[in-house]
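hey can u run this one w/ S-adenosylmethionine bound, need the structure tokens asap thx
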Amino acid sequence: MNLNFVTRGESTVPDPYAASAPYIDPLIAGFWHGTAPALTAELKSLSTLSGPVADLGAGSGRGVRAVASALPGVSVLAVEPSPAMRTALLARLVDDPVLRTTVTVIAADAQTYDFPRSPRAVLAMNMLGHLAPEQRRRLWAKIAWCLEPGGALLVNNQRPHTPVAVPRAAGGTFRVGEQDYEGWIQAEPSGAERLTWRMTYRTLHEGRCVSETTADYEWWTVTDDELRAEWAEHHLTSRTAGEEKTAFHVVSRSGGPVS
Ligand SMILES: C[S@@+](CC[C@H](N)C(=O)[O-])C[C@H]1O[C@@H](n2cnc3c(N)ncnc32)[C@H](O)[C@@H]1O
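ok here u go:
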């Protein structure tokens, strides 16, 4: 079969999240359950500000939904480069009368996204390792420049923070109908500051594996101290919030001149 696609305003490069997209939303639910109380508290503390919230790498929209419930009525910009992940995101939004009016989906990555002038918050959850060091630094510069005074970047730094092997481990299970779904994660060092994550997704019917798919992701590691030093270059300061496994950094302007 010969398929022709005509697209405008869309990347035509292969989608790295195509293989993972069917499974990520249910498998990441546990993370969001754990982080929700602290994240909600941080977002609520920004309720007197006026700008929108940008969610970088919004995925299937669990972060967007958390923002909308903490800050009712606030405009949310869901920035998501993967067409497959946007399928899950739009499906989450379209049946919700509130989300479909307050959330705007933007097909862009963090590097090319044209930030609004004064977001009250920028969310970057479970996506930092997709950015190379120079991309990360450029992102901090943009955020330092545009963040509304008093606003915050909420970003987590997934472990490991250095390139070490992560033995294969269960990354969650869920059941739908008569089938069970499993996620498995492992990683191998692939460079001075890099890992390759291997995600494996298995579908089981009556205990028998009926399909298995894997996806590899290059991931840049960085320590929290290195992040703090990078933020300091842009007059950004940080503190940590949340429980250990789902902790995140709350980064804000320290009040000095913006570089
Ligand atoms: C593990 S998922 C996390 C999704 C969501 N933030 C969450 O925590 O539920 C990582 C997401 O980052 C997106 N992503 C990958 N590279 C990106 C980039 N350079 N800029 C923005 N998002 C990116 C992927 O498409 C994917 O949706």
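The pocket of S-adenosylmethionine is lined by residues 17, 24, 28, 56-59, 62-63, 80-82, 85, 109-111, 125-127, 130-131 (CB under 6 Å). anyway lmk if its weird
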